[in-house]
Amino acid sequence: LQTIRELRYSVERQCLKLFYQPQVTLASGEVFGVEALVRWQRSAQELVPPLSFIPAAEDSGLIVAMGEWILREACRQQQLWTRQTGRRLRMAVNVSMRQLKDPDFVPMLRGVLQETSVDPSMLELEVTESLMMEDTLGLSRVLQQVREMGTGVAIDDFGTGYSSLSHLQRLPIDRLKIDRAFITGLTERAEDQVIAALVINMGHLLHLRVIAEGVETPAQREQLLQMGCDDAQGYLFGRPMPAEDLAAKLLL
Ligand code: G
Ligand code: G
Ligand code: MN
Ligand code: NA
Fold first, then answer.
1. Rounded CA gap, 143 and 17, in Å?
2. Residue nearest ligand 2's atom 18 by CA
3. Interface predicted TM-score of the whole assembly (ipTM), two decimals
4. Domain that holds residue 178
5. Ligand 2 centroid – CA 22 distance (Å)
6. pLDDT tens for each residue of 89-140
7. Which of 158, 176, 197, 226 has its CA 20 to 30 Å from the CA of residue 136?
8. CATH value at residue 165
9. Residues 215 and 237: beta-carbon distance below 8 Å
10. What is the Cα–Cα distance from 98 to 122, expressed in whole angstroms?
11. What is the DSSP pairing of strand 123-128 with strand 152-158?
């Protein structure tokens, strides 16, 4: 496929770009971390969003090489911010199931952390819930090794997949990320309030931290705070932005 060849070339030529979106503690408003979100700089004018190329990268297997580049770049940036500003931001990086199934994933992760001198506990991997059902035993083993290194694991887009409670209890994870779909209607739709409250309470019963994504209004923030949600991410606190903009906005 032409696009895959072009994409493969873009990994080699470093035409991928990471944007960073702040994650805040709800009670204090403090920015404790960022999520790295990849874009493809296809030409000077064209910045392609991830949903337009990640699926193709997953199908072709290119996501393994691409994901390694993303992880290394995110860690390099985390270390640069730490050195330049003295502020340690926790870095959240999305990883696809295809990457976690790669037998070299854990050694690769360990290597990148050592090479970039990033404290493993300042990294968190985000895995999308809907993809986690396939090979839960193999997945648990990999995530267990990740956590033994000190790196955190979050379930992304939570509420859209089919995790059973027993499954959730067994998976070695640290955090649930409530899907944006339930936050959008939070202050208007009783159903969304019920689901958000359930996720928050269930997460806490399982000793997980809970973060809400897609928070856009002060009313949503207030509601989440009242429901006991720990953390939040969304346009209210900052859009995904280039590293320089994030540093200017938050660190300097
Ligand atoms: O950045 P956007 O704001 O458009 O991100 C859309 C989706 O793309 C995210 O929800 C995430 O699932 C996926 N995505 C973004 N960055 C990455 C990445 O670095 N790796 C993987 N595997 N998926 C990503
Ligand atoms: O990996 P994940 O699916 O969580 O990626 C987050 C996605 O949500 C990215 O596409 C990001 O650009 C988008 N996003 C982040 N904050 C907001 C928000 O407040 N509103 C909306 N509509 N989208 C958001
Ligand atoms: Mn994510
Ligand atoms: Na998400």
1. 26
2. 214
3. 0.95
4. 2-251
5. 11
6. 999 999 999 999 999 999 999 999 999 999 999 999 999 877 676 677 788 9
7. 197
8. 3.20.20.450
9. yes
10. 23
11. parallel
User: Residue 46, Cβ neighbours under 10 Å: how many?
Assistant: 9
Total tally of structural domains belonging to the chain: 1
The answer to whether the predicted template modeling score (pTM) of the entire model surpasses 0.90 is yes
Ion ligand 4: residues, CB < 5 A: 156-157
For the stretch 62-67, contacts whose Cβ atoms lie closer than 8 Å and that sit 24 or more positions apart, written own/partner, are 62/4, 62/7, 62/8, 62/11, 63/96, 63/98, 63/99, 64/98, 64/99, 64/102, 65/8, 65/11, 66/7, 66/11, 66/16, 66/38, 67/95, 67/96, 67/99
